[in-house]
């Protein structure tokens, strides 16, 4: 373990280190995005360099692709891999059914495509990400730039129809410009407080023209590896 980690980084590191043991020679592995996933990529890079682990990684963002190459992981695209043995990624929240909110780092679209094309999705998270109900973390929704205000109005209408009370929505910014995803889209962050029915919410959002994908991952995650600041690891 790297020396002098803060409790939060230690929690992320120990979860990532445990998840790295699920990667075996010859596998095709989806590599998530975010600070926890970055620990995983570094751990796997070390295993490639020092233990001779041989696998191919499919990154879920340009950031992760750059880091993976930097640490010595062989990087391929999803279409080359076709299907993956496992994807390991972080999350912003997970509930007791292992439904997730993802997209805090803006990579939810590639993350969902890659995770769905995998035999198994393992989430790595610090203990603060565990919730009884999703929604405290703002729900990211990726929208096409064309007519995004109209898309926002349609999302609002849908939330009213679902009797959702908190309906604040913010366009994610990068400085004084709208944030742009790897696919050239924008992100609306929905401040909902509590999502009573995540499955229904995911289906409704995905039917709105202009919505590319939401950060709700329903029935996609198979296992969550939870890291604690004191170095303990639990599996959900
Ligand atoms: C990026 C994500 C990340 O996995 C999520 O935001 C968690 O990030 P971190 O590990 O930095 O807390 O979904 O789109």
From TrEMBL:
Annotated Gene Ontology cellular component terms: cytosol
Enzyme Commission code(s) on record: 5.3.1.6
Pfam families: Rib_5-P_isom_A
Catalytic machinery residues: 111
Organism superkingdom: Bacteria
Keywords linked to the UniProt accession: Isomerase
Binding site for substrate: 33-36, 89-92, 102-105, 129
Biochemical pathway: Carbohydrate degradation; pentose phosphate pathway; D-ribose 5-phosphate from D-ribulose 5-phosphate (non-oxidative stage): step 1/1
GO molecular function: ribose-5-phosphate isomerase activity
Quaternary structure and partners: Homodimer.
Family recorded in the similarity comment: Belongs to the ribose 5-phosphate isomerase family.
Protein name (database record): Ribose-5-phosphate isomerase A
Gene that this polypeptide is encoded by: rpiA
């Amino acid at each position: 373990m790297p020396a002098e980690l803060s409790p939060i980084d230690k929690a992320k590191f120990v979860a990532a280190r445990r998840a790295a043991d699920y990667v075996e020679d010859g596998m095709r592995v989806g590599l998530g995005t975010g600070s926890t996933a970055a620990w995983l990529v570094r751990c796997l890079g070390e295993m490639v360099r020092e233990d001779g682990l041989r696998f191919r990684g499919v990154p879920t963002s340009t950031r992760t692709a750059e880091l993976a190459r930097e640490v010595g992981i062989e990087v391929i695209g999803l279409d080359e891999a076709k299907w993956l043995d496992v994807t390991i990624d972080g999350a912003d929240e997970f509930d007791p059914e292992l439904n997730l909110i993802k997209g805090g780092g803006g990579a939810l679209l590639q993350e969902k495509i890659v995770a769905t094309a995998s035999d198994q999705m393992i989430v790595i998270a610090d203990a603060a990400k565990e919730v009884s109900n999703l929604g405290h973390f703002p729900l990211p929704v990726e929208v096409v730039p064309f007519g995004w205000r109209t898309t926002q109005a349609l999302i609002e209408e849908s939330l009213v129809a679902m009797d959702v009370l908190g309906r604040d929505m913010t366009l994610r910014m990068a400085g004084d410009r709208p944030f742009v995803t790897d696919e050239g889209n924008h992100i609306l962050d929905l401040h909902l407080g509590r999502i009573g029915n995540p499955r229904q919410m995911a289906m409704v959002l995905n039917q709105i023209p202009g919505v590319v994908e939401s950060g709700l991952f329903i029935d996609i995650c198979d296992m969550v590896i939870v890291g604690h600041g004191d170095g303990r690891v639990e599996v959900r």
